[in-house]
Amino acid sequence: MAHSWVFFLGALLCLGCSQVTLAEVGKLVCYYDAASFVREGPAQLSLPELEPALSFCNYLIYGYAGIDASNYKLKSLHPELTYNRQHYNQITALRKKYAHLRILLSVGGDRDINEFGEPDNGKYLSLLEQPEHRNNFKASVSAELSQYGFDGIDLAWQFPKLRPKKQQGAFRRAWSSFKGLFSSDTIDAKAEEHKTQFAALVRELRVELQRNGKQLSLSMLPHVDPQLFIDIPSVMPYVDFVNLGTYDFHTPQRDPKQADVVAPLHEMPERDLTHNVAHQVEYWLNSTANAQQLNIGIASYGRAWRMSRDSGLTGYPPVPDTEGAADGGKHTLIPGLLSWPEICEQLQLHLGQGKDKNNEHLRKVGDPTKRFGIYAYRSAGDNGEPGLWVGYEDPTSAAIKASYSQARRLGGVAFHDLSLDDFRGQCAGEKYPILRSIKFKL
Ligand SMILES: *[C@@H]1O[C@H](CO)[C@@H](O)[C@H](O)[C@H]1NC(C)=O
Questions:
Q1: Could you tell me the CA-to-CA distances from 425 to 230, 360, 366, 398, 431 in Å, in that order?
Q2: Ligand 1 pocket, Cβ-based, cut-off 6 angstroms
Q3: pLDDT tens digit string along 166-217?
Q4: 282 Cα to the center of ligand 1, angstroms
Q5: Which stretches make up the GH18 domain (predicted)?
Q6: Which member of 91, 110, 175, 438 has the lowest number of beta carbons within 10 Å of its beta carbon?
């Protein structure tokens, strides 16, 4: 009974589609950052090292392609790798061995940057504005997917992000939410039009892709406000699923002077009420009946701040007077980010070797409430050595989020990303421990 109603409603909503797909639950969507293939040294993830992950994933999302600003066609961000060295073909060929796997090409993801190294939002907005630009994009997506054998496209659209709010205390919070009433037009004065146009793009793409049996998904980037840019009821009937941007709520890039739990599951006292997984899920559920199309994002990496002497000794978040992004990990080399094996190694130093002379040990602080998340830190030294504060996920905390997705009967989990999990099994012997732990709960 209930099911036939769902089909009936789905068919009504989906007049433009020829086929209604009911999303399955327990999905595991795995992001694969192609840049990890060209990293130098031990952080490089080779194809044979990628393979053990694939039996756990329902979808592999290849990140990332970009948009050519001169003609609004899809373009490769690493043409040498993807075309000449045939990386696209090598990835899609994996489906021969892992027949259950669907492989989507993702466009955007904050990787499509301008000459200043900033995500290039402008072309993502101007593409939306003209039907002929949308047509160029659509045609190039179709061509690229067919030529390289992808199963679909994922839109990790580079909408402008909400600006970080700098406030502490109730008065300043109230003041900034008052200002917030007027601030949206400063992010994008034409947000309302772009919202309508993006819904049109999704609908048009769906019609085109469906002819070739290709899929379409949406990946929300953290701090892109769906209220500004996504007409949820119009978009949902045309996408296979949506990956919510429920990670990176707090990062050293956005909040250099204050370290905090990166992606709390539930609202934390005295924090922005939107900066947690549950709020984002609730927002989307308020606008769509189909929970099974929603996947929550879970990170495999930590965000790392440099602690100063003034940050105190307790590590208790929010940690004041931090000095921005900590140095990159010794393998991944990305400022303010540590992969799970890089974090795990420093935690084990603490356990195994006590007070290490190089200050490399990290003290873990767990979360018995299972509501917020975990962190690890070492405070700054007496001789001016900086401290380190890292908010992260481990197999246990990721499993708590996966269980939440199950309990709310959502579609599943979107995992960011395979290349920052422990793909060699250096930490505890098992390869991809966070991925496995999520899969176990779904
Ligand atoms: C969802 O809807 C309820 C009821 O209208 C409302 O109270 C709540 O604030 C909404 N939540 C979000 C996150 O928008």
A1: 39, 20, 22, 17, 4
A2: 279, 282-283, 286
A3: 644 555 556 556 555 555 448 999 999 999 999 999 999 999 999 999 999 9
A4: 7
A5: 26-442
A6: 175
How far does the centroid of ligand 1 lie from the alpha carbon of residue 289, in Å?
Answer: 14
How far, in Å, from the CA of 286 to the mean position of ligand 1?
6
Q: Which long-range contacts (C-beta less than 8 Å, at least 24 apart) are formed by 204-209?
A: 204/134, 204/135, 204/138, 205/138, 205/141, 205/153, 205/155, 205/238, 206/16, 206/17, 206/238, 206/239, 207/16, 207/17, 208/138, 208/139, 208/141, 208/142, 209/141, 209/142, 209/145, 209/152, 209/153
Q: For ligand 1, atom 4, name the residue with the nearest CA.
A: 286
- Atom in ligand 1 nearest the alpha carbon of residue 285: 1
Domains by residue range for the chain, with CATH: 23-299+394-441 (3.20.20.80)
Cα separation of 280 and 278, whole Å? Answer: 6
pLDDT score at 84: 86
Nearest CA to ligand 1 atom 9: 283
Distance 22 CA to ligand 1 centre (A): 25
285, 286, 288: residue to mutate for ligand 1 pocket, most atoms within 8 A of CB: 286
Cα separation of 60 and 53, whole Å?
A: 10
Maximum distance among all Cα pairs of the chain, rounded to whole angstroms: 70
Tokens of 53: 């992950």
Does the structure show a pLDDT above 60 at 267? Answer: yes
Question: How do strand 301-307 and strand 387-392 relate by DSSP bridges?
Answer: antiparallel
> What confidence category does residue 384 fall into, taking pLDDT thresholds of 50, 70 and 90?
confident
Nearest CA to ligand 1 atom 12: 283
